[in-house]
Design goal:
Helix content: 25-40%
Strand order of the largest sheet: 3-4-5-7-6-8-9-10-11
Strand content: 15-25%
Order of helices and strands: HHEEHHEEEEHEHHEHEHHEHEH
């Protein structure tokens, strides 16, 4: 009943603004009248209608980029439309980042620069930059989106093992905190936790600021003399998987894109009711009726590797395999079938050692043409408080926050 009542709300917004995954999530809370649910809804008919709309989105999105010629002809327009749906058209001014490296933590094979920067004036992004001790600069680099986590020192502190794999193997790795799971609090779960049902009808998605923070992370990396500006990868898990898809499609300076635990097409989201499980950042107001393979088209022919797991309730195999199949077709147009693939692990929603290994191996192969075997080794973890750029959510923050 909860699923159906939530979807009734999307219909009350009108068919003209039915944006499927985003709009359905936007109107996700059940109708209430004195604590009771509305009655008399044709639940079967409603679900059939919504799934038919999801199927239409899939078909329309497929037809729009049915060939390489269509994709290339429309690439600039598709990118503009996507940026508009994110709320990044026009792109905000690239104001000074005002980077502040608070401290440097010394580890066995790398150092960690604990820092923050301003993606917008007065908007602080907390991050940790892992830098290899061995090797010669400029290094390839990776931006790592940690997804949703807990702790008062930011989600970045829980991704030390993943970041260490990159640094120990010759990559600079910048782990950036997401909004609301960072040291500086910002409302991110407005709909899923605070019943802000107007977010999407107003054209808002919290993914906009996450993508912008990531684009500014690239600006920062490119300002460093020790980073190779042609060899920057993007990856992340769960919410960071959403981020990898969307920032990868938005930001052309990423040479390799690797979303983890964040892939499914629109039809699977609707038919499996996934929108009721996800955070607001999983979606964007889909007024141009994109599907996830559309994002794959915007990323192509830049290499793309999907990290998935067979028992992922949030992103089941039927959803990610549909996206992979279409992505393989798209990449085939460019004569680069080896530039797209999938690392499928056993287990539930998560990010596993074999995926960490394959992630580095894939970027190695795509950026350098080398086939190096990576073996995951446990990292010596640094206490969370040492990785906090602002002392945690209760710390002393810059005066103009």
């Amino acid at each position: 009943m909860q699923r159906v009542m939530k979807k009734k709300r999307s219909m009350s917004a009108g068919k003209g603004f039915l944006i499927l995954a985003a709009a359905l999530l936007c109107m996700a809370s059940p109708a209430r009248a004195g604590g009771t649910l509305d009655s008399g809804l044709d639940t079967v008919g409603m679900n059939i209608f919504l799934e038919s709309q999801a199927a239409s989105v899939r078909e329309e999105a497929h037809a729009r980029i049915a060939t390489r010629e269509k994709l290339e002809t429309q690439r600039a327009e598709l990118h503009r439309e996507f940026m508009f749906m994110l709320g990044l058209d026009p792109v905000p001014p690239r104001t000074p980042l005002e980077v502040n490296v608070v401290r440097t933590v010394d580890c066995d094979n790398y150092t960690i620069e604990v820092l923050y920067y301003q993606s917008l004036p007065g908007f602080y992004v907390t991050a940790d930059l892992y830098r290899p001790k061995k090797g010669k600069a400029p290094f390839p680099a990776t931006v790592w989106g940690p997804g949703h986590g807990g702790g008062i020192y930011g989600t970045k502190t829980g991704r030390q093992q993943a970041a260490s794999e990159w640094a120990a193997n010759g990559y600079i790795c910048l782990v950036i905190d997401p909004v609301q799971a960072a040291e500086v609090y910002g409302l991110h779960h407005g709909l899923s936790c605070y019943d802000l049902r107007d977010w999407y009808s107003r054209g808002y998605t919290p993914m906009a600021i996450e993508v912008w923070n990531t684009m500014r992370a690239v600006d920062y990396l490119l300002s460093r003399k020790d980073v190779d500006d042609k060899k920057i990868s993007l990856t992340g898990v769960s919410g960071g998987g959403h981020l990898s898809w969307m920032a990868g499609a938005a930001e052309e300076r990423f040479a390799v894109v690797q979303p983890a635990a964040g892939t499914a097409d629109v039809y699977t989201h609707i038919s499996h009711d996934l929108q009721n499980m996800h955070c607001d950042c999983a979606y964007f107001p889909n007024i141009y009726r994109f599907d996830w393979p559309t994002l794959a088209g915007l990323i192509a022919p830049r290499p793309l590797l999907l990290h998935t797991s067979v028992d992922d309730a949030y992103y089941p195999p039927v959803g990610y395999k549909a996206v992979l199949e279409r992505a393989q077709e798209i990449f085939g147009w460019y004569g680069k079938p080896g530039s797209v693939g999938m690392c499928e692990a056993p287990g539930p929603h998560g990010y596993y050692p074999e995926q960490r290994e394959k992630a580095v191996e894939f970027s190695d192969r795509m950026l350098f043409g080398r086939n190096r075997k990576i073996t995951s080794r446990p990292a010596k973890l640094v206490p969370d408080e040492e990785l906090a750029a602002l002392g945690g959510i209760y710390g002393k923050h810059p005066e103009n926050i």
